[in-house]
Amino acid sequence: MVFIAAGCALYFILQAVIDENLDEILSNRAEIVKLSLHRKVPSNNYWSPDQSVEIQQSTATSIPTLFSDTMINSIKEGDLIAARTMSLGVTEKGQTYKVTLILSRLESDDFAGVAFWFMLGIFALIILILFIFNHKLSTAVWHPFYQTLDKMSVFKIDHRDDKTIPDLYDGKRQSTGIDEFDQLNLVLNEMIRKIQTDFINLKEFTENASHETQTPLAIIKSKLETVLQDQTLSSEQHRQIKIAYEAANRLSKLNEALLLLAKIENQQFPDTAMIDLCELVKQRLELIEELMAFKNIKVTLRLDNPAIVQMNSYLAEILINNLLGNAIKHNVEGGQIIISSTLNQFSIANSGKPLTIAPEKLFQRFTKQSTGNESTGLGLAIASEICLKSGIALEYDYQNNLHTLTLNLSPLLRSNICI
Amino acid sequence: MKCLLIEDEEHLRETIAGFLEEEGYLCEQAGTLEAALEKIDIYEYDCLLVDIGLPDGNGLQLIKELKSNHPHTGVLVISARNSLDDKVAGLELGADDYIAKPFHLTELNARIKSVLRRTKFEGKIELKIDKFRILPEARQVFVGEELISMTKKEFDLLTFFVSNPNRVLTKESIAEHLWGDFADASDSFDFVYSQIKNLRRKLLEKTGVDYFQNIYGTGYAFHTPL
Q: B-contacting residues of A 271-290, CB under 8 Å?
């Protein structure tokens, strides 16, 4: 910017200086002409390739002294060239003469031109050198920063093989040479270690909790089942045991669902693949077609587009299962299910009575439409969490007696940051 | 049939072993990986039930060893629910099937039988039950030479019952066997009821015998004359 302004200023200054210079030369010559007119030395209109003097008798009363630019024909150059002219009036013994002096400015302009371009060249060179220098300095100074950035961007929180966890210092304490970046790396390292420790702790917790709670539950269920075999039980005893057995089953399902939810939230399902939800849904429908027929539910498929998502395959199955299961559970006898897939949108709709709970609460844990005991109230919460972690937007709508859950698969929503 | 049950939790282990013995299996037990490895070295088993979460080492290691030395022993992996890694690893190492805790013993029984059919007889087996026959691989049921038409679910139901004869099968265990994760879609119990009704009727028509017993409020039992 500054250089451009300076360049323009330089140009104008040079022009001004040249003009002044030319004008002075012309003025000097004007003096000579005046003198010669005064001495009555006949001075002819004199011209040479780059200058001329023209004296004309004039009847004007006053002629102003003027400097201006014009073009004259140069024989030497074979073309029109720029020239500076001075016209003035000289009165001698009652006769007014208009004197016009012309001086070629070609050489002066050339000179100015050379000076100008030379200066410009120097400017450009300075800028270039400054730029290169700055860039090199910048790269050297910021190198550790970019190194850190690179390592951060490949960091993934779940690593089964700990050796692959990038250590910002590569195992040894290295200094970047710059205090600020050393500090940055130190803090980042600490933060990463903490995140990893927390993650591993939580993962171990969920794995252990899973194992530890399921084992006693398995025992309870089997023992109760065994007792139920006993034909010598009174009907009252049988009834009591049955209730306990059913409660154990419910607890088991609840336990499973909660643990799954914790694992999903903790990002313990990092592997992804390209999954076509349409294919998944078709597979599941095949398995439950008899159930649908029994409930007299009509299924309509409008799968115009494949619904491809990059997500964990296990979670995809759970998602589809939950959504389909929901569509069946809250349906009516003789109802319908419509599954459609258009560009970037996959939806499952089912007929059913209006919600008794607020739609905003639909995806929260333990919000149940039915007060029945069969459902855990976690199905949609799990579906919602899976969608969140997979970059899918999940929406609910109720229109024309149809509950519709729509998955928006637009790639813009997906982010690849794994922390 | 000789089984080795490898499970660290004592009560669970005894419960499963007791059940299997009732079903006619010879069931040996091991509570640690080490004990299990010793036993495998010495004896030959028809089927192995391995709990993945063993205290002194991962059960997966065992599967690898076993399958390389005793390729004809069926391996059933017991894993925790939603613990995909272990399940997948187990299957990749050569396990024949898996079952997730907590499971119904009847379900376990059905799976063991299925694994045994596959490993011992390469699936070519015919189950002869009283007046009818089941060909599991072809998924067909015959009374004499007559093929009885059945839906997929009816067939699965029949094999489940036939694998657990003379036992009360709760509607929960039946629903879970038929649909796994969908078991709690409501009305699935009613569905079970209607499927059993159909099955019962079909068998009754062709064989003249009603094999099913309705255990009120709980489930059903399939009785074969002993």
A: 287-288, 290
